[in-house]
Design goal:
Blueprint (H helix, E strand, L loop, with lengths): L1 H21 L4 H22 L4 H14 L9 H8 L4 H7 L4 H4 L2 H11 L16 H17 L1 H10 L7 H9 L6 H10 L1 H9 L8 H11 L8 H17 L1 H7 L3 H19 L9 H11 L5 H14 L5
């Protein structure tokens, strides 16, 4: 109670001083003076309790006034690690401040290989004046050109020495790149069957369940929107590749590439049936087993049932 009376007397004294200096203080101004003193007192009480909020806020304000951390003051390894998280646009902006650090070849090399996993030029001796930053710009330009016209895009890469004129090299580039437009890529692969052959051989389906392997295949090589010769070609190539990757499983199940072809076609039709909103009467598991075994009689009923469950639970194989 004594402390409370002391605060009241102190506030009255401060108000009198303010009145003497200004001649007159409004009630609102007096209230502000009193509240500021109460706030100051609360800060002091918190400091006595072991948590000095006032000093914490003051320290935070001083850090904000200091601005961002200068990467040049850090060890080079730490600075490069921080900059490695930036994309190409942000790295270019960072080079305006930290020119030597942000233009380092290791950073741009990492950007190139994380976006375009394979290029023929990676395995060659770099020419005089070679720069990974310049290479990144060329790869980006070539990808945009490919997405507009695939033939022109591949020609651009070859003219810059980025890709060799080889179906295998082009297939590796496509397999390791995720910036290419899938519709344009589908058109290109339909015209370049030699590249398609090498692209299929890059897939490893060992010990994969058939529907999951088919999904992975169609993630890299997108299926056409309509049935036709190109879809049949894709399924045929996949069937042979799947059998080549799983010879023991094929012998155990008694499956041939032709039988895998039938199963793949059945899985695609089942995917459409179960996922399409236009199909009201969905195919049952019993119907799928009966229809599939009618086309491929050597396949066990349990194996076909597991195929149905996979599509029912996970979804379309060629979405």
């Amino acid at each position: 109670m004594g402390q409370g009376l002391w605060r009241v007397a102190r506030n009255q004294h401060l108000q009198q001083e303010a009145y003497g200096e200004t001649g007159y203080l409004s009630r609102e101004q007096s209230r502000r003076v009193a509240s500021s003193n109460i706030s100051h007192t609360s800060h002091r009480k918190q400091a006595q309790g072991g948590i000095d909020i006032y000093h914490l806020l003051k320290a935070r304000k001083s850090k904000e006034q200091e601005g961002f951390i200068n990467l040049e003051m850090l060890p080079p390894e730490l600075s490069f690690t921080i900059l490695s998280y930036l994309n190409a646009t942000d790295l270019c902006l960072a080079s305006c401040v930290w020119q030597d650090l942000a233009n380092d070849e290791l950073l741009w090399q990492g950007l190139c290989k994380s976006t375009w996993g394979h290029c023929s030029i990676y395995n060659k001796n770099p020419p005089l004046g070679f720069s990974f930053r310049k290479l990144y710009m060329q790869l980006d330009e070539g990808s945009l050109t490919f997405n507009a016209n695939p033939e022109e895009g591949v020609s651009y890469f070859m003219s810059k020495g980025i890709l060799d004129d080889s179906p295998k090299e082009i297939a590796k580039f496509i397999f390791c790149t995720r910036t290419l437009n899938w519709k344009k890529l589908r058109i290109y692969l339909d015209e370049r069957r030699d590249v398609l052959d090498d692209l299929v051989t890059l897939h490893n389906f060992r010990n994969q369940f058939l529907p999951n392997a088919l999904r992975e295949f169609f993630r890299h090589i997108h299926a056409p929107e309509e049935r036709g010769e190109y879809l049949e070609t894709l399924i045929t190539k996949f069937s042979h590749r799947f059998c080549a990757c799983n010879p023991d499983l094929m012998r155990e199940l008694g499956l041939s590439p032709d039988a895998v072809y039938v199963l793949c076609y059945s899985l695609i039709l089942l995917s459409i049936d179960l996922t399409s909103p236009h199909v009201k009467n969905k195919m049952s598991k019993r119907e799928f087993i009966r229809n599939t075994r009618r086309a491929a009689q050597n396949i066990s009923e349990d194996f076909v049932g597991h195929l149905y469950d996979n599509i029912y639970l996970i979804g379309h194989v060629a979405a």
